């Protein structure tokens, strides 16, 4: 079974609507829609915004649904000038940018007492998604890149530059690395897919509401193709 997580309604509602005879279970305040899309067993859930919600949701998918893989779909701000609004980023790795124990001698983003702080996406899912993107016929560019996550909406040039310089991030959002973290600890293959809604700079507060729907729609188009191919 494939677990699909989005942070907001706009990122998962159309998938729920396509599901055949879903069984809906409310767990920890989240509605888990279990059913069939395109002949494939899936469970779709809106986790809510932020790393804690995302992490809790992923653990429920592991414990209650025993999912074979987790895909996180949604929108993000671009940190890479080559990646424009509505383009799509397929995660190669994900890292929590707001993990900061530098006062104790750690580098930014490093989680104390863990062997891994940068979580690698499943390569088979990456290749499957690249193939699916071509088949979906999207009119945007598709990139592989690093997703960085924190409980912050990035909207200044200074913060954007810092995340790019400190982490080499290609896009910034608020859930992906937490999902990656939990999936990795449970040995569940994962992938984060992000459509760009803004440039994570001084115009982000204007661009985000303007392009959010279009970016999320691109993500869903791609995800539907992935479900066919998975």
From TrEMBL:
Pathways per UniProt: Amino-acid biosynthesis; L-methionine biosynthesis via salvage pathway; S-methyl-5-thio-alpha-D-ribose 1-phosphate from S-methyl-5'-thioadenosine (hydrolase route): step 1/2
Record flagged with keyword Transcription regulation: no
Keywords assigned: Amino-acid biosynthesis, Glycosidase, Hydrolase, Methionine biosynthesis
SUPFAM superfamilies (UniProt xref): Purine and uridine phosphorylases
InterPro entries hit by this protein: MTA_SAH_Nsdase (IPR010049), Nucleoside_phosphorylase_d (IPR000845), Nucleoside_phosphorylase_sf (IPR035994)
Pfam families in UniProt: PNP_UDP_1
Keyword field contains RNA-binding: no
EC number: 3.2.2.9
Origin superkingdom: Bacteria
Name the UniProt record assigns to this protein: adenosylhomocysteine nucleosidase
NCBIfam families linked to this entry: MTA_SAH-Nsdase (TIGR01704), PRK05584.1 (NF004079)
Any one GO MF annotation of this record: adenosylhomocysteine nucleosidase activity
Span of domain Nucleoside phosphorylase: 2-228
């Amino acid at each position: 079974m494939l677990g699909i997580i989005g942070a907001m309604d706009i990122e998962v509602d159309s998938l729920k609507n396509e599901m055949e005879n879903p069984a809906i279970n409310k767990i920890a305040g989240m509605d888990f829609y279990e059913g069939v899309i395109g002949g494939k067993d899936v469970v779709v859930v809106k986790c809510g915004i932020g790393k804690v919600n995302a992490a809790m949701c992923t653990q429920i998918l592991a414990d209650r649904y025993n999912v074979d893989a987790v895909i996180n779909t949604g929108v993000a701000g671009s940190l890479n000038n080559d990646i424009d609004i509505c383009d799509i980023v397929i995660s190669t790795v994900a890292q929590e940018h707001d993990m900061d124990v530098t006062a104790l001698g750690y580098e930014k983003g490093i989680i104390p007492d863990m062997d891994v702080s940068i979580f690698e996406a499943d390569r088979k899912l990456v290749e499957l998604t690249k193939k699916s993107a071509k088949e979906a016929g999207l009119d945007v560019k598709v990139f592989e890149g690093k997703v960085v996550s924190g409980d912050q909406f990035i909207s200044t040039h200074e913060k954007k530059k810092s995340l790019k310089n400190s982490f080499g991030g290609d896009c910034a959002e608020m859930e992906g690395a937490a999902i990656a973290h939990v999936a990795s600890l449970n040995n569940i293959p994962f992938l984060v897919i992000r459509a760009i809604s803004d440039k994570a700079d001084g115009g982000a507060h204007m661009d985000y509401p303007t392009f959010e729907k279009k970016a999320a729609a691109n993500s869903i188009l791609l995800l539907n193709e992935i479900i066919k191919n998975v």
